[in-house]
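Example record

One chain of 152 residues, shown exactly as stored in the release files.
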Amino acid sequence: MLISSGVPARDRPDVEQQVLLGAWRSVERGLYRPDPSEDPRRALRAWIHGVAWRKVSHYVNSAYVRRVVLHAQPLGVLREPAGPSLEAQIDARADLQALAQLKPWQREMLLAVDRPESLVAFAKARGMNPYTAASRLRIAREALALKLRRRR
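Predicted structure tokens for this chain:
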């Protein structure tokens, strides 16, 4: 069934495994109910053939099979480098070092902006006046901007 349906040799073990797992799960759910008047071996073969036919049709119509393009050097097909450029990585690392040089309370205030809670909720959770939190955030941003300007 797999060969006649066009399943490539490299994928046959995977599809065979899917067929066996699908058949096993169907048996566990009670979906295998052969006709008692038929030869049990023949009934099982016909039922497995149906399971295989369904699994193969799912495989053949899957987006993976329809769109996969195998290439010996897949990165050579790209027109430009994949991922961030080396310069961008170096800049990001330097920015993180500048962030690490800040005082702990400044880092905490800068990271508070990224939390799902508002700045007011962040301040109240720490027993701080919301205006104080806003002022500290402004000071932390200025300190980070100063460190980044010195680096460049």
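Notes: DSSP finds eight helices and no strands in the chain.
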